[in-house]
Amino acid sequence: MGSTRLPGKVLLRTCGKPLLQHQIERVRRCTTIDLLVLATGTNAVDDPVAELGRQLGVAVYRGSPDDVLDRMVQAARPHRPQYLVRLTGDCPLSDPAVIDQVVRAAQAPGVDYASNALHPTWPDGLDVECMRFAALEEAWREARKPSEREHVTPFLHTQPQRYRLADVRHDPDLSALRWTVDEPADFVFVSQVFEHLYPVNPDFGTSDVQALLARLPSLGTLNATHGRNEGYLRSLAQDALQPAAP
Fold first, then answer.
1. Is pLDDT of 234 > 60?
2. Would you state the pLDDT for residue 240?
């Protein structure tokens, strides 16, 4: 709820529901996920997020607002998972078929971490990460940089010499498309996508959004000026200001 660019973004409404509810309903259609946990912060501003999770029957964990790596590990630890799938709550167009594809890649023998965002070829907003929980616990014990704590997985995917990575790509490259919600223009775009597709087919997927954009190309220009991973880039700048480890 504390987003600086679009405060309260996850509870903005379209088609009669908060964006986060739309995302939870879509993720629940995954065939590879056994348990969904909503991991939010302990700040009072996030109380409505936790309450929505409880209303929807989702397990809720509240942890550090800033050390998101710790929050993720503590949320998962009681359930003793073999794998953990990380999804961010500002992606209401999450596609269960894409999530399942990444999970299956992570389950291949010897793989520690799989993602469709290592070399982006999917629309921004369909990012999925799946990792062995034991590997994430190693990151939790050893990660020190601000970017590693806030963004959860850089400790893993920046060490290919230590962890075996699986890169799930899309052909053709769709990385120029922006389907996440970080800015007011993003919300306008996502709202219009839902208004066009949801009443006809609540289970619409990536191909349906692509077909809509082909019919209405002006829709894709609504938020095209914003860049990808701006928050992560700011965290990397914070890393540079951190004193060197002894």
1. no
2. 62
